[in-house]
Each structure stands twice: as C-alpha cells, then as structure tokens.
C-alpha cells in the first residue's frame, strides 16, 4: 500500500467510521471521467454530479481525462489520494476491457480501485450507414460484408478498448468476418465517420447514435442485450438474429482510488440509491438508452470481474492487444 494510503487508513482508524463518513467532504470532490465531454459517459457523470453536490454540500466538478480508451483518466484517478477528494466514473471499457487490452497497466482493475456502486447499464446498438449498407437485417448485412473481400469495410469506435471496440470484435469473431478498426478520440468523431460513410458499421452506446438514427442518417439493425430493449421493442437483438449468446452491456460505475475509507463508501451508497430513484434522473438516463441500477459495492466488483474474464478470453482468441 502506498504511504499516502497508509496515512489515510490510519486517519480512518482514529475516527469512528460513521463520524468520518458524516464529516466528509470538507472540500470539493473531483469526479474523473475517462472520456471526452458530450458522450453518454460524460452526461451520466454530470447527472449524478449535480445531485451529489446537493447531497454532499460541496462542489463535484467533472474532470474529463480522455484518451487511450479511458486509460489516461483511470491512471489519473489511481494516482490521486484516497481521501475522498477524487472519485472515478468508470465504464465497461476503462475499468473492464482495458485489463484485456493492455499488458502494461500500472494498476490492477480488479484489486486497486474501491468499488462504490454500479450506476447505469444498457445495451449497445449495431448501426449502419444505409447508403453503404441498404439493408434492414443482420442477415442481409452479413451477406453484404461477405460479398466484398475481407477487410474491405471499416468500423468506427470512440477509442481502442471501448465497449464499442470489443463489441465489434466479438461480432467479427462470431460471424467470421473482418473489418478494419478506425478509432476516434470520442463519440462525436466516431458517429460522424459512420454518417459520412467512411466507417459505415459500428456498435455503440445508444446515446451516441440515436440522434442520427432519428434523422435517417444511420439505421439500427440490432441491440446487444439478450432481451429486446423496452424503448425499442421493434428492434431485434443480435442473439435472436443468428448470433446465439451474443451479449455486451455498456455500464457506468463509481469507484474510489486505492485507500478510500469504507466510511465514505457507506456514506455514498445510500445517496446514490436515493438519486437513482429521482424521476428526473430516471428519465434523463432513459433518454441516454440506459437504466438506473444503483447497487451495493459487491455488485460492481462482480461486474468488473466478469467483464475482465470475458474480454481477456476474446482478446486471446482474436489476438487483440495494445502494447
């Protein structure tokens, strides 16, 4: 344990847990978001940060640290003091997939971060540019892809290691197709590349593609959950479109840096659950294509473990790695 963490732990032992939790915070609490502004992860962070400010009585500024599929932001949080002055809004890519993608992470995503609560989950959507792929089903899409040489088409993501990246790689592995990965620094570039036809296939968070779908610039062919999404009941799942068992879930969760005292976690969990029941929060997250699932810390830890195991297996089979 780092010296800073030992000092924090010693302080926690000197103050009764409940008292420590109630006394915290005495200054602003920085919320690190390992994504660019404007995407679904950033919007989720700002929804919760707004209500946490009211609950905690201190500012909760959102600090966007985008890059390397979330690695830059996560490392920033990892190197921050574990005194409650910094929290991390992690996601399926930054706190799950990256363990499978990078060999040289300076932290262990399963052990080094303190899980607080799973916040939001939701499926990704498989969308295509209808000018390049004038199709209305996954079967027709596969026929169009296979009609061209392997690697003929590009697919876009918001960065290597994102859930969009590994969802597309899982699609390729399960269909024995090949497309070229074109990563962008954020969701805006990814979506624009799909609309322009430069990368006409992508699997992405709902919030990043729905505006373009509504304008007819992109078309949803399937969602990545095992069951149909309630807000899009007419859209089939990949599981029922011939890719049996296909499931990838986008999620957000709140973590603390190493050494975050348990009393702070115990203070935050009921506050997050209360926020998650607010009608305006439920509606805002619904518009992002997600659902509130504020949870005990153990549920978030279990999600991280399961994702890391799943994506490590895919990375080994598909030989996906970034040095």
Q: In this structure, how is the largest beta sheet organized?
A: 8 strands, mixed
Count of beta strands: 10
- State the order of secondary-structure elements, H for helix, E for strand: HHEHEHEHEHEHEHEHEEHHEH
Distance between the ends: 26 Å
Pick out the low-confidence regions: 1-14
Structural class: alpha/beta
Q: How much of the polypeptide forms β-strand, as a percent range? A: 15-25%
Structure description:
It is a single chain. The protein has 323 residues and is an alpha/beta fold. The protein folds into two domains: 3-120 and 251-318, D-Maltodextrin-Binding Protein, domain 2 (3-Layer(aba) Sandwich), CATH 3.40.190.150; 123-241, D-Maltodextrin-Binding Protein, domain 2 (3-Layer(aba) Sandwich). Helix content is 43%, strand content 17%. The protein has twelve helices and ten strands. It has helices at residues 3-14, 17-23, 40-56, 71-78, 93-101, 138-146, 163-175, 187-196, 206-214, 262-276, 279-287, 297-318; strands at 30-33, 62-64, 86-91, 114-128, 154-157, 180-183, 201-205, 219-223, 249-256, 291-292. The strands form two sheets. Strands 1, 2, 3, 4, 7, 8, 9 and 10 form an eight-stranded mixed beta sheet that branches. Helix 7 (163-175) links the parallel strand 5 and strand 6. It starts with a helix and ends in a 5-residue tail after the last helix.
